[in-house]
Specification:
The chain is built from 6 helices and 13 strands. It is about 25% helix and about 35% strand. The protein is α+β, with helices and mostly antiparallel strands. It has one domain. The strands form 4 sheets. Strands 1-4-5-8-12-9-13 form a 7-stranded mixed sheet, sandwiched between helices. Strands 2-3 form a two-stranded antiparallel ribbon.
């Protein structure tokens, strides 16, 4: 998110402009994930605008052994995951990460949805509900083996002198939205906020009201929001690394208010 905002300044020389193109965020997130690779597409293959059908179909173990009873004789047979899975809201994922390649052997690792500045409640809840749905799906080879899903966006506030208040206010807003997501009990969740960029300058005087005028271009606070879902009782090591940006002094983090636990 910080890299995308810096790119926007390079393009426009305007420090307070809200990024109009979401793909600037998408490309920067994908590039930073790519830095984890030791070679081209190894160990992570990153797809932009990946179909939910392809991603959902690859969320399960490739092969499993299941019990069978043929003609009264009990035994075991190998089965391969089906290809017909999808989410209830069909579409495309901004950034999808797989291991190996995108053939039948691939396994989906994470789905990342990104939105630009100040997305609406309906847009946020729509993406979060789809991110949560992957954890409830099943296949003949087993349950979803997805590591995590993430949602990111940026909120803009003009009064940079109350930065902690801004962070906590945005956190409360998204936590309230999170409470509207149906949780079947198969995932943990955390929402956190952090400072993407901040610049503070004393406000001018509003000629109409005589109060402070926060419209000055040199006063702004861009706040990053990150919502991460992980499988219930799954490993949180990778998620702790992802959430590291939220652990500094200019951050706030909270479990969602529907019973999910904080990742600690």
């Amino acid at each position: 998110m910080r890299d995308a905002c810096e790119d926007s300044v390079i393009f426009t020389n305007r420090w307070t402009d809200e990024i109009a193109a979401e793909y600037l965020l998408t490309v920067n997130v994908a590039k930073n994930i790519g830095k984890l690779n030791t070679f081209y597409g190894d160990p992570y293959v990153i797809q932009l605008e990946c179909s939910t059908k392809e991603f959902a179909a690859n969320c399960f173990p490739l092969v499993a052994r299941i019990p069978v009873n043929e003609d009264g004789i009990a035994g075991m047979k190998s089965v391969i995951r089906e290809r017909h899975h999808n989410t209830s809201r069909n579409g495309r994922i901004d950034v999808a990460v797989f291991d190996e390649d995108c053939s039948m052997r691939a396994t989906s690792l994470c789905a990342i949805e990104l939105k630009g500045f100040n997305p609406s409640q309906s847009v946020v809840i729509g993406d979060l509900a789809r991110n949560a749905e992957y954890f409830s799906q099943t296949s003949q080879t087993g349950r979803s083996s997805l590591l995590f899903t993430a949602f990111g966006s940026i909120e803009s506030r003009k009064n940079a002198f109350v930065d902690q208040e801004n962070l906590e206010g945005v956190l409360a807003r998204y936590s309230t939205w999170m409470s509207k997501i149906v949780d079947p009990g198969n995932f943990d969740a955390e929402v956190g906020t952090f400072t993407v960029r901040i610049q503070a300058k004393e406000p001018g005087i509003d000629s109409d009201t005589g109060g402070p005028d926060w419209a000055d271009d040199e006063n702004h606070h861009f706040i990053g929001v990150l919502v991460v879902f992980t499988p219930k009782n799954g490993s949180k090591d990778l998620v702790r690394e992802i959430l590291s940006d939220m652990r500094g002094p200019e951050s706030a983090a909270s479990p969602v208010p529907n019973g999910a636990k904080t990742l600690s």
